[in-house]
């Protein structure tokens, strides 16, 4: 039996608390904060753990204040927000599709955001803001197209994933075509953006992403129970009073926007959305989407991967998207092997 506690308030309101899930979330938050401090202290001007903490609390020198608050803290905040947003989006899609492969990386949303950004870079030579807007627009349009093509008296999970895989293939071809039409400078810029990187991120990327997460994260978390019911099947969810199609549409729209905002801020960071929800499920040993744990896992994964890439390869030499892509590819092979042995694919 799982350790689940019931907390009762004075007003008679009863709240169920999964002790293991709460412990996992607490440890993940602590790990994310520790990795964040370590990442802030990493670079051409190294700082100790104590120096970083002292600077964050207003006790550093003028040079340390500039390095931490102007150069490194925005990068860390983008890493945390992007990781949480991608993981939360992945948890929603995996829950809605009832398929561990239901991830923005697999079903074409990341490719849609990339195609939108490349369209702005290649055809219009747009700046940072225009590229971000193109990324968001591409993600929204691809999400709407996948939902419309997968619709047939509702959205069935496997049909949704298959349509998404087909859309990803089409968009990958579009991305290749755009790269062939670009001049050398734009092609190099587009290729760099496509890798997915946290290098050079500043407050201009933090605030829009933070605003999107402030609105969308509570919206998704508020549908946690409904998503849990959806995993039992549409008929069971209907019987339990869940408005199935409305829940599916609202949560998927929020997940598309989270993916698009994260991609606009850091480029297409691979496999965080695929791996984080599954890792969270295994850590908590809980059924359902485990949204809070998934978000914390994604934030911890990305900030730790960025720190590891700098420790292993030197400051800003390996974009974090390349590292997560390599690790995520290995994870995907393991996941496919597990699903095949279980007879699910």
TrEMBL record:
Cellular localization per UniProt: Cell membrane
Pfam families found in the cross-reference section: FecCD
A biological process term (GO) from this entry: siderophore-iron import into cell
InterPro entries per record: ABC_BtuC-like (IPR037294), ABC_transptr_permease_BtuC (IPR000522)
Record field: transmembrane: 21-41, 76-94, 106-124, 130-150, 157-179, 205-222, 249-276, 318-337
Main location as per UniProt: membrane
Gene3D superfamilies: ABC transporter involved in vitamin B12 uptake, BtuC
UniProtKB keywords: Cell membrane, Membrane, Transmembrane, Transmembrane helix, Transport
Membrane protein topology class: Multi-pass membrane protein
GO cellular component terms, semicolon-separated: plasma membrane
SUPFAM superfamilies in alphabetical order: ABC transporter involved in vitamin B12 uptake, BtuC
Coiled-coil annotated residue ranges, if any: none
GO molecular function terms noted in the UniProt entry: transmembrane transporter activity
Similarity section: Belongs to the binding-protein-dependent transport system permease family. FecCD subfamily.
Protein's name in the database: ABC transporter permease
Natural source organism: Streptomyces cinnamoneus
Lineage of origin: Bacteria, Bacillati, Actinomycetota, Actinomycetes, Kitasatosporales
């Amino acid at each position: 039996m799982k350790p689940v506690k019931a907390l009762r308030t004075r007003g008679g309101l009863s709240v169920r608390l999964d002790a293991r899930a709460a412990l996992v979330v607490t440890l993940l938050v602590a790990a994310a904060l520790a990795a964040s401090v370590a990442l802030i202290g990493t670079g051409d001007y190294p700082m100790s753990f104590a120096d970083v903490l002292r600077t964050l609390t207003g006790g550093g020198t003028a040079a340390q204040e500039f390095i931490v608050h102007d150069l490194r803290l925005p990068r860390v905040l983008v890493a945390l927000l992007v990781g949480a947003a991608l993981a939360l989006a992945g948890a929603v899609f995996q829950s809605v599709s009832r398929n561990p492969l239901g991830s923005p990386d697999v079903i074409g949303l990341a490719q849609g955001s990339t195609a939108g950004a490349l369209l702005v870079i290649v055809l219009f030579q747009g700046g940072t803001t225009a590229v971000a807007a193109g990324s968001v627009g591409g993600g929204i349009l691809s999400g709407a197209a996948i939902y419309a093509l997968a619709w047939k008296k509702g959205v069935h999970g496997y049909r949704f994933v298959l349509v998404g895989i087909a859309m990803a293939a089409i968009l990958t071809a579009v991305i290749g075509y755009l790269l062939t039409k670009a001049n050398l400078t734009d092609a190099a810029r587009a290729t760099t953006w496509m890798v997915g990187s946290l290098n050079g991120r500043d407050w201009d990327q933090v605030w829009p992403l933070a605003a999107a997460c402030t609105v969308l994260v509570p919206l998704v978390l508020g549908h946690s129970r409904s998503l849990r019911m959806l995993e039992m099947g549409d008929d069971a969810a209907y019987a339990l009073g869940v408005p199935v199609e409305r829940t599916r549409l609202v949560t998927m729209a929020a997940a598309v926007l989270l993916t698009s905002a994260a991609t606009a801020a850091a480029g297409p960071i691979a496999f965080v959305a695929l791996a984080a929800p599954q890792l969270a499920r295994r850590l908590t040993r809980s059924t359902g989407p485990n949204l809070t744990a998934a978000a914390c896992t994604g934030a911890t994964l990305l900030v730790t991967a960025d720190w590891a890439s700098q420790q292993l390869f030197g400051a800003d030499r390996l974009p974090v998207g390349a590292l997560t892509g390599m690790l995520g590819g290995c994870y995907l092979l393991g996941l496919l092997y597990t699903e095949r042995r279980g007879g699910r694919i």
